[in-house]
Amino acid sequence: MKFTSSLILCAAALGLSTGLAAQGTTPAAAGATTAEAKPAVAAPTPTPAPAYTEAQALEVYGHLLAKKIGLVDLSFNKDEVAAIMRGIEMAAEGKPSPYPEEKVLPILENLMQQKQQAWLDRLRTENENASTAYFAKLKQDKNVVQTPSGLCYEILQPGEGAYPKPTDTVKVHYTGKLLDGTVFDSSLQRGEPVEFAVDKVIPGWSEGIQKINKGGKIRLYVPAKLAYGDTGAQGIPPGSALIFDVELLDINPPAAPAAAPAPAPQAPTAN
Question: What is the rounded distance in angstroms from the CA atom of residue 75 to the CA atom of residue 166?
């Protein structure tokens, strides 16, 4: 596992550096002549090893494993955890599965789906409550404008010229955050702006980008219903309101439709 490899590498690096320090084989010490030798410096007192046992380390391993496989998020009760532990013990002892897996796996799949749905429901409720409180406080900010749809926005830097239309394509730099400040996407971090059609993104973006003109910067406060709703997206939990800082770099109108070719002349018909 990754953390095990990291611990081994760290331990090896620590042992190597400790050994070199004890021998005095730093580059300066190794290259010094007898005449140039400096007074010996007392070796530092070695740091005592942590007062933890292997059994305690294995408890930490179990704790990490439980978080990794979702025992915490999916809220297994004590009896369910005990059943999982019995299965782990049997596997560790080399015993076969206690029940026919092909018959039990459908039951397990159904249970896990129920657990995951309950977790998503809790997460969505928590995010909806946080969003309600956040937008209630946001309404008190005189710099923030709220539209009839529920979108809120703040002009950070006015631009110049025309505003985007739904049929336009825009080039922007942006950073998207959750309400707690977690960045889930950023063109600035990637170092490259993005282009998209105004009417082909989430509703909060489509509406909000039309509130700023070229060269301007805007902050969009997008409620979940104008973002990814109850399902969420990669890096975005269900029911999450989102905050976007957007700089509008350019606006490109749709390409003019190509002119239809002139109809070919028809041959005269015989009388």
Answer: 45
